[in-house]
Each structure stands twice: as structure tokens, then as C-alpha cells.
């Protein structure tokens, strides 16, 4: 964040909650309390108490602080014009003659992005690294004489420019379906990972015995390559896509084995979206709910997959009413924060006839994602030359500059701050105009605030300027017009337990 954080303990006076004992929890010594079991017999009070006790893991806290992350959809679809490939593409169609991943990294850095995710494998099954387990890859293309490795170049460039590295490996695989591996009906049996192949000169320091189908083992072997040969990985992104196959041949994914391997080889990486660390917000417009909870009811399905207890696009995912509604089917209350994905263009892959969204559109998305307790995942697709399009590069820089003007110097940084139960007051020293307010809780202690008001003292009286529901890791409020006042306060009106407000920033937009 752009401002230093100061911790203010704000306990809602109407609740006067000072602390609660924690029940037995599901988790590990490394990750205590990120999920707590619930039962259909829990009362509303039980559910709220348990929700107040859920805590994020260190990896989740680090992820939520990123704010802006990038997606790069790149592969054979870039050259065929498709959004979902067929799996029988000629690998030689992949010809990014001008590939420059340093250009990608510079553009993302200048756009304010902290992490980037590459589509190492999309649904078509074409792989962007030198894999041992399929011929549908860059190794079978004449590009760079079959020696090209987009993932290697991408990972090196991102780290060189201070950007964390993420990978997307689609669970679906049209190519492996054509080869009789994906959705072939094979049983789950113990598989040794990595599975060495002819000419394989690796001496793995450790191998893993994990239950998997034929295709599950294929995915595990590719995950092993990516997580052991390309440096530290900070996010592993799965969706739940199924191949375009007959409904009676659906592949039931080996989520438990995939999670185990990622946790072992990349312990600091968050596993998103079909994963236990980060959830999909429920739309591809980049928009969070008005009140976006990080503590939500979940259920386990399909070999340990973390899944929604309510509909993925439910308008309310974590309020008291939502907790009660999910009670019959929920297994846990879990720290499962939202990631808001959206593409800068209409498609996820590059299409020459599309143009990037306007600065105004991107800024609105920022306030409705980062400003609503979520992380923005913006897709910027490389073109057929292997470059981010010039128009998109310009737009990324303009986007960062616009956000910087929307939230310039924090006027409260040098103010005098006082805290009392349920409120935090800032004296700016003199009257200043304010039209942007930024709040955050110290999420190390969970997400507690259910409602609050922001007030300014005018003519000796405290006057409400705006009110809202949750805060979480980041809440940004926009006033309809600038308000001039010297003294400002945030007053918590509803809270599940002790609410620790760690940021109360006041800004005057320069737009």
C-alpha cells in the first residue's frame, strides 16, 4: 500500500467483545485456524463466533497485499484466433518470432503489478515449457529450433523486474483426450512422481507416491517439472474446466494429490481458484461484491477440492444471513478471499480486432475489486509477435498513473490520531478537502467489521459522510464531492469480535 499502517484497536461499543476461546480446528501447525469445522446444529451465534476466529495463513496475507496481479493468456490460440483450442493443432503454428518477456515485465512493473501468471497450459493441452510428458508443446515447434521455453523466459524476466511468478495449468486437456489419457475412465492408483521416462537423467531428491488416474498422474508430472525447474512459484492457478467431452466421460480431478504436491514443492504459493487459498469472485468482469467477505462457508468435494457452500455467484457470500443459509451443506468456515479476474480486452487471448478497455473502465474496476477487499487479476494477452500490444502497454501505464492521482498523498499520515472503543479519530491540523477514504483491518486477527460510518466534524458537530459494511484487507470509499474538515473519524457500528483498524487514510483526488 502507498501509506504506512498504524494499528488502532476498535471494538464496537454495541458489542463490547473482548475475546473468545478458540475451538479445536482443522489445520496444521503451519496454518492454524484458516478453517474451522461447522455443523448443521450450529446456531447463528455459533457460526458468527466461529467466523470471528478464522485466521488467514501467511501465504494468504502476502497474497492479499499484492492488490494488482496480471494474467498472460498465450499459446496456440494466439495464432489460431480461438479462445478454446481443439488439442489437434499443429505445434508449428506457435511462432512468436519477436518474443520479449522483458518487455512484458517492464510493462507490468510500470503498471503497478506485483505478480504475473502465465498460461503454461490452456485447455487445448499445448505446453509452453520443455516438458517430457507430451509432444503437444513448444519442443515440437520449429520456433527456436524446438528449444524455446516461454516459461523459462517468463520466469526469469519477471524476477529480474521484481515481479512474483505464477503459473496456470489447466485441468482440462483436449490433446490428452485425443490421446486416450484424459477422461479414459482409469482407476485411481498409487503413482510415483516424478515418473521417469526414457533418457530421463534426473535424480530427484525426493519422489512422491500419490493416488491418481492416468491423467491425474500426467498433471502431477507436469506440475513437478514446473515447480522444480523454474525457480520459486508464488501462485498456482487452477480453474475447474472440463474438456469438451461426452458428459459420461467427465474426468474427476485428483485435487488432493495435486494440492499435496504443490504444498510440498512450493509451500509459499497460494493455490487459486480451484484451490484452498483463493477463490474466484464469481464473474469475469473484475467486480467484487459490495460487501466481500474473506471468511466464507465451504464444502469439500471431489477428492478434497475446496468448493462453495453457496452458489459461486451468490450476491452474499459471508454475512450472518449467508452463514445461516449455508449451514445445511457447509463443512467449514474458511479464509477464502476473492480474486477478481477480467481481461483488458474482450477476449482472453489476443485478437487483432480488439482494443483495450479505457482508463476510466479500468479505474472503476480497481475501485470495485481492490477497493472491496479483493485482489484484481487483469489479463493482458501477448500478440502473435510475442509482445504485449503497444496500446495495452500505454493503457497499463495510464491506469497506474490514474490510480496514483485518485489516491495521492495520505492527508492523515501526519495527523494526530486517537482511538477509543469502536472508533478512530484523526485531526489533520487544519481543514483539508477529502473525497477518498481508505480503510483496512489487521487481517492477522481475522475479518471482524460488519458495518461502520465515516464522519467529519463540521461547525462543531459530527456529520455522517458515508457508511458501508465490511472492511477486510482493503476498503476504498469515494465521496460524491470533496468535503472540507479538520477532524475525521471512523466509527464501527457492528463487529463480530475485536476489530483492529490498521489503516484510516484520507485523500483528495487530483483527477
From TrEMBL:
Q: What is this protein called?
A: alpha-L-fucosidase
Keywords in UniProt for this one? Glycosidase, Hydrolase, Signal
Q: Where is the Glycoside hydrolase family 29 N-terminal domain?
A: 92-398
Where does the signal sequence lie?
1-26
Question: What PROSITE patterns does UniProt report for this protein, alphabetically?
Answer: TAT
Q: Does the keyword Hydrolase apply?
A: yes
A Pfam family annotated for this UniProt entry: Alpha_L_fucos
* Cited InterPro entries: Galactose-bd-like_sf, GH, Glyco_hydro_29, Glyco_hydro_29_N, TAT_signal
EC annotation from Swiss-Prot or TrEMBL: 3.2.1.51
- Please give the start and end residues of each transmembrane region: none
Question: Which family, according to the similarity comment?
Answer: Belongs to the glycosyl hydrolase 29 family.
Return the SMART domains for the record.
Answer: Alpha_L_fucos (SM00812)
Query: Does the keyword Cell cycle belong to this entry?
Result: no
Which domain of life, per UniProt? Bacteria
Matching Gene3D superfamilies, A to Z?
Answer: Galactose-binding domain-like (2.60.120.260), Glycosidases (3.20.20.80)
Amino acid at each position: 500500500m502507498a501509506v504506512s499502517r498504524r494499528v488502532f484497536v476498535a471494538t464496537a461499543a454495541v458489542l463490547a467483545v473482548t475475546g473468545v476461546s478458540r475451538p479445536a480446528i482443522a489445520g496444521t501447525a503451519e496454518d492454524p485456524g484458516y478453517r474451522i469445522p461447522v455443523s448443521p446444529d450450529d446456531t447463528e451465534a455459533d457460526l458468527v463466533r466461529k467466523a470471528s476466529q478464522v485466521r488467514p495463513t501467511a501465504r494468504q496475507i502476502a497474497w492479499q497485499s499484492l492488490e494488482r496481479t496480471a494474467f498472460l493468456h498465450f499459446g496456440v490460440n494466439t495464432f489460431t484466433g480461438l479462445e478454446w483450442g481443439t488439442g489437434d493443432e499443429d505445434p508449428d503454428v506457435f511462432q512468436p518470432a519477436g518474443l520479449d518477456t522483458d518487455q512484458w515485465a517492464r510493462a507490468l512493473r510500470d503498471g503497478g503489478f506485483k505478480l504475473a501468471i502465465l498460461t503454461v497450459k490452456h485447455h487445448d493441452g499445448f505446453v509452453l515449457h520443455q516438458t517430457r510428458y507430451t509432444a503437444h508443446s513448444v519442443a515440437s515447434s520449429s520456433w527456436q529450433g524446438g528449444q524455446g521455453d516461454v516459461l523459462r523466459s517468463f520466469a526469469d524476466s519477471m524476477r529480474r523486474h521484481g515481479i512474483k511468478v505464477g503459473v496456470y495449468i489447466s485441468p482440462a486437456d483436449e490433446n490428452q483426450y485425443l490421446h486416450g489419457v484424459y477422461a479414459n475412465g482409469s482407476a485411481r492408483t498409487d503413482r510415483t512422481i516424478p515418473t521417469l521416462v526414457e533418457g530421463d537423467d534426473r535424480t530427484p531428491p525426493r519422489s512422491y507416491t500419490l493416488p491418481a488416474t492416468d491423467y491425474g498422474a500426467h498433471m502431477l508430472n507436469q506440475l513437478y517439472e514446473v515447480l522444480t525447474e523454474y525457480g520459486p512459484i508464488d501462485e498456482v492457478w487452477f480453474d475447474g474446466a472440463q474438456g469438451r467431452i461426452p458428459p459420461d466421460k467427465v474426468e474427476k480431478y485428483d485435487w488432493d494429490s495435486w494440492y499435496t504436491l504443490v504444498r510440498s514443492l512450493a509451500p509459499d504459493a497460494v493455490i487459486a481458484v480451484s484451490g484452498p487459498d483463493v477463490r474466484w469472485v464469481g464473474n469475469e468482469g473484475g467486480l467484487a461484491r459490495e460487501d466481500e467477505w474473506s471468511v466464507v462457508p465451504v464444502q469439500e468435494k471431489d477428492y478434497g477440492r475446496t468448493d462453495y457452500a453457496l452458489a459461486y455467484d451468490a450476491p452474499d457470500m459471508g454475512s450472518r444471513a449467508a452463514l445461516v443459509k449455508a449451514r445445511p451443506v457447509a463443512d467449514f468456515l474458511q479464509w477464502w478471499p476473492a480474486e477478481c479476474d477480467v481481461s483488458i480486452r474482450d477476449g482472453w487471448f489476443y485478437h487483432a480486432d480488439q482494443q483495450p478497455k479505457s482508463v476510466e473502465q479500468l479505474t472503476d474496476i480497481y475501485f470495485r475489486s481492490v477497493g472491496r477487499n479483493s485482489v484484481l487479476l487483469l489479463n493482458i494477452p501477448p500478440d502473435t509477435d510475442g509482445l504485449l500490444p503497444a496500446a495495452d502497454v500505454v493503457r497499463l501505464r495510464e491506469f497506474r498513473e490514474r490510480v496514483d492521482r485518485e489516491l495521492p498523498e495520505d492527508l492523515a499520515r501526519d495527523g494526530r490520531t486517537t482511538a477509543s472503543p469502536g472508533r478512530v479519530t484523526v485531526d489533520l491540523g487544519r481543514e483539508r478537502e477529502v473525497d477518498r477514504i481508505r480503510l483496512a483491518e489487521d487481517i492477522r486477527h481475522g475479518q471482524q467489521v460488519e458495518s461502520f460510518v465515516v464522519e467529519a466534524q463540521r461547525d462543531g458537530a459530527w456529520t455522517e459522510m458515508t457508511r458501508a459494511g465490511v472492511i477486510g484487507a482493503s476498503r476504498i470509499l469515494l465521496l460524491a464531492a470533496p468535503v472540507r474538515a479538520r477532524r475525521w473519524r471512523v466509527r464501527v457500528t457492528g463487529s463480530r469480535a475485536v476489530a483492529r483498524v490498521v489503516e484510516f487514510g484520507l485523500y483528495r483526488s487530483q483527477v
